[in-house]
Write a structure and sequence with these properties.
The complex is a heterotrimer of chains A (about 280), B (about 450) and C (about 300). Chain A is mainly α and about 280 residues long. Chain A has 13 helices and no strands. Chain C has 13 helices and two strands. Classes of the chains: A mainly alpha (about 280), B alpha/beta (about 450), C mainly alpha (about 300).
Chain lengths: ~280, ~450, ~300
């Protein structure tokens, strides 16, 4: 055996052991998901047998129960509308402002930035109670708009921050050329800057959707029976006398499915957003 | 040019989404079939319902009501904590999200004082014959009333009961073994000492058998279960305007309660909510529990129960010399004081419909809870549920006031729920816990 | 020509400033106004639906002697510190393991991300069921392995906080991994080669080169996670409800109880302002570190 093949053998073993360790970690990470899937397919009584087991049955009863007996379609629709609304509003507010912020110097620039970054430091509980009172004064309490407006505070700030960073790294020459060609600033932004930053916009949209979809405390305090979202609706599976693990699991699967799917499909953009703060 | 295509597509989706958002912004449209003679056609009411066993059937009742009157009563089922928060926030801010709500009878004092729900007295007087006032057990009326006002209408009556494993209590070998050990016959306990003996006897941890279980989770769960034992010992939280939660009776009750968790209950019971406790019984781990009669029919449902056909029900034991009424609780239904005149009128019609004799009988067959003599004495129902006579007995001798239904109940329950939990987890001793509770409760007034 | 350019530049600038108006107005109305409103009602004795009475600093005096709230602040600090430091250590280790050009690693990385998109409330409900003291899978198999978990992970006072920390670690370590992995991949190769020639071992390499080079990324990751952990609510609300006793009652939960259960919105506003100050201090400490290292 020559030196090189011994070295490559060592490398291979090292890589294999790294992968094995990672697979173990992955098992820990995936376990709750597997449990959720298994429980959503189990019969109610089998959940209470000792020792507890995974995959005791494969029935879709729990799914049909939640669709027939609970108003899950309404909750899903509310969750979708609120998430989409937040996404659109966040983009409308965050993208043009992020662009302008990267292109112009002005007094108070720092104050605006600090105010926007402060949203991240603000505990939700601080804002949610006054927000509730304010929404009531606006006559919006209990509507989807109430949740959209508060979700957008957090998401527009993130979009703004992300987009201003991205536009900062785009070359200004193209827009300047367009300006000289007689394009207005608005057209230069829409024609040149926006197409170049599509990946960033996808990232921002994805984050706004996920954060809004996963929100609980705002929906808890701001919605009415007609605007209940999916996470909030899930709580009613835990009645006073019946432990509804299997129904909860069916709804849980429905709740996590779209966000997991989106994050896997748009993985590149999702990771881009996660790492943005760290690398910048 | 994939990106452009994708962009166009996603923009289309966005616009469709926003269009939808605007179209269905606040209220939902009604697509009710056209029928001429229905008086409340197109009206929509909201009903916040506790996620208790009776809840599912309310949706059936609601659709029957809609067929009869045209009004749609939308049923929103909520867990105990969310229900209490949602409706008190609704009432306090006057947003009138819910026209109707189930009202735990312990909330009546607070609701009356704050004017949260409408006083129904005048309507009840007006429609006395229609509702057959005297057919409803008197204690039910008492529990929905406060300060001479009827702020909640009787809906579901619960009797506090001792639930036990009849099959084991009647087993010849068990009986012999029990007599040999304790010197008297095994039967349903009359005293708390007997309860303790039986609990100890049936606790066999190596066989996953636990003698007696209660709720231990911090909050309403542990507070309400402890109050059952407090009542059995003759203790009271407030007596003649004085805070008496640190009395000798309450101490004795808490000592026994701590012992339940130390010696007889499944080890996790200190974290149990109602559903956990019921599950422990239904899965055959716990041999006895004090529970509400509403849960009774669930023990026979083999979808959720492993002890079908094995359950007995009795009046819970009390300390010697303590002469207290049997524990009674349950749910009433109240009308939001901020509801419009018209909605309130429809809500009242719905209440009468929901609690009428005929509907009550159907409801009983679908996990309802009785409030009427006619339901409790109905031969068909009795054939199906032989335990109804026990419930009737409890109701006739019932005391719905052992949990103080005063306006400050919620705060008291928070305090008791924390301090009793600290006692059973041995963070505080029995004396410390009750002294702290007494101090906290005095601070409210 | 120069004049023309100047003018068009001004016009461009003005248009761009207009771009900033919507978000500024939005943040003023929906962010700054609620925050100021909170500061304002903190001076009142106000019960939701009742009338407000100006009480000056009374709410803050009450806060200073409110044992339950001060304890909840300590619980919050313990939660944030333990959760974030464990996440950092695990995150760094896993990122190190993943740091390779191998294709398999990319696939692994994809799946590691799942907890970060998991709806926190669902995560809470799932873990609550897994932790169920008698029937939960985790409890059962830990006991079967002979590990003493007392009466149950979420019902024993000394284990309950640990249990919710584990859930937070499960959910957010992947975020650390991704940020740190990106940091690791952007590190220059030269210093390592030089040090290896000097004969430095793996441990020395890690502490002498990786950590200092990675410091900015580490600090930002710590900042993001600390501020987010300070907001923890959903998982604790669902899993323990703050119990047993008050062992998992973090500040958010206590404030929610005061404001939404007892409807004492004035006092709750004062408490949340107290918490906000803590949040800002934490943020400023990190920012100071980040800038002092960069500058």
């Amino acid at each position: 055996m020559n030196v090189i093949s011994r070295q490559s053998l060592l490398d291979k073993t090292l890589l294999a052991s790294r992968i094995i360790i990672l697979l173990l970690i992955l098992a820990f990470i995936a376990f709750p998901v597997i449990w959720l899937l298994s429980t959503s397919l189990a019969s109610r009584i089998s959940m209470f047998k000792i020792p507890p087991r995974l995959f005791t049955g494969f029935k879709l009863d729990n799914y049909s129960y939640v669709f027939e007996k609970m108003e899950i379609s309404k909750w899903i629709m509310n969750s979708i509308l609120i998430s989409l609304g937040t996404m659109i509003l966040s983009l409308l507010l965050g993208v043009p402002s992020g662009y302008a912020f990267s292109r112009v110097e002005f007094k108070g620039k720092k104050i605006l930035l600090i105010m926007i970054l402060l949203t991240r430091a603000l505990p939700t509980i601080v804002i949610v109670m006054p927000f509730r009172i304010i929404m009531q004064n606006f006559g919006l309490l209990g509507t989807r708009w109430a949740v959209i407006l508060i979700d957008t505070v957090y998401n527009a700030a993130f979009t703004f921050w992300l987009m201003s960073g991205l536009f900062e790294s785009l070359p200004k020459e193209l827009e300047e050329a367009a300006l000289i060609d007689g394009c207005g600033t608005v057209r230069a932004f829409i024609r040149i800057a926006v197409p170049l930053s599509i990946p960033g916009i996808i990232t921002a949209a994805l984050f706004a959707f996920i954060l809004s979809w996963n929100d609980f405390i705002f929906a808890l305090t701001l919605t009415s029976p007609d605007t209940t979202t999916l996470p909030l609706g899930m709580l009613s599976t835990f009645g006073i006398l019946q432990q509804g693990w299997t129904h909860m699991a069916a709804m849980g699967m429905i709740a996590i499915f779209p966000v997991i799917l989106l994050s896997l499909l748009l993985q590149r953009y999702y990771i881009g957003g996660l790492t943005f703060g760290g690398v910048k | 040019m994939n990106i452009r295509k994708g962009l166009v597509l996603s923009l289309l989706v966005l616009f469709a989404g926003t269009g939808f958002l605007f179209a269905s912004g606040g209220q939902e449209e009604q697509a009710a079939p056209a029928a001429e003679s229905l008086p409340y056609e197109g009206k929509v009411l909201h009903f916040a319902v506790m996620a208790d066993q009776y809840a599912d059937y309310i949706k059936e009742i609601s659709s029957e009501f809609q067929a009869a009157t045209g009004a749609e009563v939308k049923v929103d089922i909520l867990g105990y904590v969310e229900l209490s928060q949602k409706i008190t926030q609704d009432y306090a801010t006057g947003s009138a999200d819910y026209d109707l709500a189930t009202v735990d009878i312990v909330w009546t004092g607070q609701f009356e004082q704050e004017g949260y729900t409408k006083d129904l007295s005048a309507w009840i007087e007006r429609d006395k014959e229609e509702i057959d006032y005297d057919d409803i057990v008197p204690v039910m009326w008492v529990m929905g009333g406060w300060n001479g006002k009827q702020i909640a209408y009787p809906m579901s009556g619960y009797a506090n009961s001792l639930i036990y494993r009849k099959d084991l209590f009647e087993d010849v070998d068990e009986k012999a073994a029990f007599k040999a050990e304790y010197g008297y016959e095994l039967s349903t306990p009359d005293t708390l000492d007997q309860l303790a003996d039986i609990a100890a006897f049936f606790t066999r941890k190596d066989e996953s058998m636990y003698g007696l279980v209660s709720n231990g989770a911090r909050g309403s769960a542990v507070a309400q279960d402890w109050m059952e034992y407090m009542r059995a010992f003759g203790g009271q939280i407030i007596q003649d305007g004085e805070v008496t939660i640190d009395s000798a009776e309450c101490k004795a009750a808490l000592e026994l309660f701590v012992q339940i968790f130390d010696d007889w209950a499944p080890s996790g019971a200190i974290g149990y909510w109602w559903d956990d406790r019921e599950t422990a019984y239904r899965t055959g781990q716990a041999m006895m529990q004090q529970s509400w009669s509403i849960a009774r029919s669930g023990y026979e449902n083999e979808e959720i129960s492993l002890v079908a056909g094995k359950t007995g029900m009795a009046i819970p034991p009390t300390a010697p010399g303590v002469d207290v009424g049997y524990g009674v609780g349950g749910w009433g239904v109240g009308i939001n004081a901020d509801s419009s005149e018209e909605n309130a009128e429809i809500a009242w019609e719905f209440i009468k419909f929901m609690t009428s004799k005929e509907v009550m009988k159907d409801w009983m067959m679908n996990d309802g809870a009785p409030i009427r003599y006619s339901t409790l004495k109905d031969p068909d129902l009795n054939a199906e549920m032989p335990w109804l006579s026990n419930i009737l007995n409890s109701f006739e001798n019932g005391d719905g006031d052992y949990r103080p239904r005063i306006p400050e109940y919620n705060e008291i329950q928070d305090i008791v729920g924390l301090r009793v939990n600290q006692a059973i987890t041995h963070e505080l001793t029995v004396d410390e816990a009750l002294a702290a509770a007494a101090e906290d409760i005095k601070a409210i007034f | 020509m120069y004049l023309f350019q100047q003018k068009s530049f001004d016009k461009k600038k003005r248009t761009l400033i207009y771009f900033l108006v919507p978000i500024t107005v939005y943040m003023l109305v929906f962010f700054l106004y609620p925050v100021l409103y909170n500061l304002f009602i903190g001076f009142f004795d106000l019960k939701l639906g009742g009338t407000a009475e100006f009480v000056g600093l009374d709410n803050y005096r009450k806060m200073a002697g409110d044992e339950q709230f001060l304890n909840s602040l300590i619980t919050t600090m313990v939660f944030v510190f333990c959760a974030v430091s464990v996440e950092l250590i695990f995150g760094l280790a896993i990122a190190g393991l993943l740091n390779s050009e191998n294709k398999k690693m990319e696939i692994l990385r994809t799946f590691i991300l799942i907890p970060t998109v998991f709806t926190p409330l669902v995560a809470g409900l799932v873990w609550k069921s897994l932790y169920h003291p008698d029937m939960g899978m985790v409890s059962y198999y830990l006991r079967a392995l002979g590990i003493n978990i007392g009466r149950g992970l979420i019902v024993e006072r000394h284990l309950a906080l640990l249990s919710v920390i584990i859930v937070d670690v499960w959910e957010w370590t992947p975020l650390m991994v991704i940020i740190l992995l990106a940091g690791l991949k952007s590190l220059p190769k030269n210093p390592y080669e030089a040090a290896m020639i000097d004969g430095a071992g793996a441990v020395q390499l890690f502490f002498r080169i990786t950590v200092p080079l990675l410091k900015p990324t580490l600090l930002v990751a710590l900042l993001i996670r600390s501020l987010d952990a300070l907001k923890v609510f959903d998982i604790i609300w669902v899993i323990t409800g703050g119990g047993p006793g008050t062992s998992t009652t973090v500040a958010n939960l206590r404030i929610y109880e005061v404001g939404m259960n007892q409807l004492q919105v004035g006092y709750a506003a004062a408490l949340s302002n107290g918490l906000l100050v803590v949040g800002i201090i934490v943020g400023l400490i990190f920012v100071k570190f980040i800038y002092s290292k960069e500058g």
